[in-house]
Design brief:
Structural class: alpha+beta
Radius of gyration: 23 Å
Number of strands: 9
Distance between the termini: 41 Å
Order of helices and strands: HHHHEEHEEHHHHEEEEHHEHH
Strand content: 5-15%
Number of helices: 13
Largest sheet: 5 strands, antiparallel
C-alpha cells in the first residue's frame, strides 16, 4: 500500500539527525559563511525549521500529495521527484535559496534572484511552494505570490527573512553548500535530514549513525542494536554506512560479503537485514530457533522469480527481521544465527 506524503513527513521527522550539545568540528570551507560557533547554532535553527515544515506536511499532506507514480511495495529508496513531487520542489527551492542566496552582513536576511527557480516547474506550482513556506513563517518579498502569469526566471531580487529565528537562514545556506558541492551516492539528501555530521569533512562514523538512526526506538531495542554492533566489530566484521533516498543501511561484512545489517526506510520501517549463505552447514542449530526465524530462513532470499515463486516477494532485500519487541523475544536466536554464519564463512 502506498505511503502518503503525511506518512513520509512523519518518517522524515523521525530521521532528522538529532541535535547535540557537543562541539562538533566544522570543515574550514564552511567557515567562510559564518564563524564556527555560529554555524552550529544556525544548523540547529534550520533543523527546527525542517521539523516545523514536516509538522505542516503531517497536517496538510493530503492537499499536496499528487504522485506521478507509485513506489514498489518493497522498495527501500524514496524518490521524491516521482513519488512526492511537492516535497521534491520544496527541497530544490530550499537548496537553491541557500546556495545562490546572499546573506546580509548581519546574516538576518537572504537576497536571491530568479536562478533559484526551476524552469521545468510551472509558475503556479512554484508559487504554491512559496505560499506554503510563507504559511509557516518564511517571509518572501519582491514577488507577487498570486500572479500566475509572471516570469519567475526574470526576478531580479527576492528578499527572504525568517523572523521566528533568523539564524535558520545561515543554517540553510551551510547545508545547501554541502548538498550542492559534496553530496555523494553514499550520503544523499543531507539538507532534508539536516545532517550536521557531514559538515566535519570526515567520513560518517557508523556507530554515530546507528545511534542517531535508532534513537526513536524503545530503549531496550536501542541497547540490543548497539550490543549487536559492537559484538560483530569485535568479531572482525567491517561496518559501512549508505544513506540513499532516505534509506539508511548500516552493513556488516565479512571480507566483501554482506552478512547482515540495520535498515531504516519509509516503506519497510526499521529492521535487521540478514543475508546468510551457509545455512546448510548449521541446520541442527536452525531447528532450535523461534518458528518465525526458521520459516524466514527456509523461505530464503533473492529475486522471487529466480526462486520459482513467480513474482516479486521482496527477496532481493535479504531476510528482514522487524526491529521491535519480536526481535527482543528472539535476541538469543538472532545472535546465534549471525554467530553461526560468521563462523562458517571463516
Amino acid at each position: 500500500m502506498r505511503k502518503t506524503l503525511t506518512e513520509l513527513a512523519s518518517y522524515l521527522k523521525e530521521i532528522l539527525v538529532p541535535e547535540t550539545d557537543e562541539t562538533y568540528e566544522i570543515a574550514s570551507e564552511f567557515k567562510v559563511i559564518a564563524p564556527e560557533a555560529e554555524i552550529r547554532i544556525s544548523v540547529s535553527a534550520f533543523r527546527r525549521f525542517l521539523s516545523r515544515l514536516f509538522d505542516e506536511l503531517i497536517i496538510a499532506g493530503a492537499t499536496y500529495d499528487t504522485p506521478k507514480k507509485v513506489a514498489h511495495e518493497y522498495e527501500n529508496r524514496t524518490t521524491l521527484s516521482g513519488y512526492y513531487p511537492f516535497l521534491h520542489s520544496l527541497n530544490l527551492l530550499l537548496i537553491r535559496m541557500g546556495y545562490h542566496g546572499v546573506l546580509a552582513q548581519d546574516r538576518r536576511s537572504l537576497t536571491c534572484a530568479g536562478n533559484i527557480f526551476d524552469e521545468r516547474l510551472s509558475t503556479p506550482k512554484t508559487l504554491e511552494c512559496l505560499r506554503f513556506l510563507e504559511g509557516f513563517g518564511m517571509q518572501i518579498e519582491g514577488i507577487d505570490l498570486n500572479d500566475k502569469k509572471q516570469n519567475l526566471l526574470g526576478v531580479k531580487a527576492l528578499h527572504i527573512t525568517y523572523s521566528d529565528n533568523p539564524a535558520m537562514l545561515t543554517g540553510m545556506k551551510v547545508m545547501a553548500a554541502y548538498e550542492v558541492e559534496h553530496g555523494t551516492l553514499l550520503n544523499q539528501d543531507v539538507l532534508l535530514r539536516c545532517d550536521r555530521r557531514a559538515l566535519t569533512g570526515h567520513e560518517l562514523d557508523a556507530a554515530c549513525v546507528l545511534h542517531d538512526t535508532i534513537s526513536p526506538l524503545p530503549k531496550e531495542i536501542q541497547e540490543f542494536a548497539l550490543q549487536l554492533h559492537q559484538r560483530y566489530l569485535d568479531k572482525g566484521l567491517t561496518c559501512t554506512v549508505e544513506i540513499k533516498g532516505f534509506f539508511i543501511y548500516i552493513r556488516y561484512c565479512y571480507k566483501r560479503k554482506d552478512v547482515w545489517g540495520f535498515n531504516a526506510s519509509l516503506n519497510n520501517g526499521y529492521h535487521l537485514n540478514m543475508k546468510p549463505v551457509k545455512t546448510e552447514e548449521y541446520q541442527d542449530t536452525i531447528r532450535t530457533f523461534d518458528p518465525f526465524l526458521q520459516e524466514l530462513i527456509q523461505r530464503g532470499y533473492g529475486c522471487g522469480r529466480k526462486r520459482d515463486i513467480g513474482h516479486c516477494d521482496g527477496g532481493c532485500r535479504g531476510l528482514p527481521i522487524p526491529l521491535d519487541a519480536s526481535a527482543l523475544a528472539m535476541r538469543d536466536d538472532i545472535v546465534t544465527f549471525i554467530d553461526q554464519e560468521v563462523l562458517h564463512l571463516k
